[in-house]
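Table 4 source record.
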Amino acid sequence: MVATSWKTVKASLDLFVHDAMLPTADTLWIRELQAGLQESTGASLLRLGVDEIRREETLRFDHHLCHAVTAAYFAPVENAPCLILDGEGEVGAASLFDMSARQIKRKWRSWGPGNLGTFYAWLTFHCGFDWRLGEEWKVMGLAAYGTVLPELRDALVGLLQVDRGRLRFVDDGEIAKIDALARAHARRPDDPVMSAADLAAIGQAAYAMLADRVIADVCDVGALDLLLSGGCALNSS
């Protein structure tokens, strides 16, 4: 059997493309990549000599559900909330599942627009790297060498609102103002890498504050266990 970790082709969904932080072309490009992967699912097995592939019976699962199942399956606990922080799922960038007696059930999903993945891609661009090549990791490493400027950190936190765990971008005019502040610290690709260390540190600190707000919104004060999964949950200092 062949299965994918996406239930739908995102390009076929009638969703608004938010372009205040990343160019529309970037979003459309990654959606076309996802569509191509969905279309060619299982084809790579032919290269391995597997010629009896039941591609017409391909199983397709909700993306955030796959993240949740992966985290829950390996968790050494019976009960815990499972928060998915991702660049995107089928819809929205965050989901909350509840694991009870080793069974998981979705409680809610964020419908956006607004996600930490876009925030970090925007930060990666201003640090002189390319998120399309997966260079967010360079920003995480560079952040350790920089100095956090509290005023700019707080301004970057203002790019996103957190409402009961759901993330939403502020209006385009406010984003433009904050973007202008960040550009004063931005690095051109041919500048020394260390010239972006402060912006990387500031952005990483803002990211952590936003993630903490989401977690605080979804977790009971007395809860001892929390499962985190998704690409954005992987971000670390």
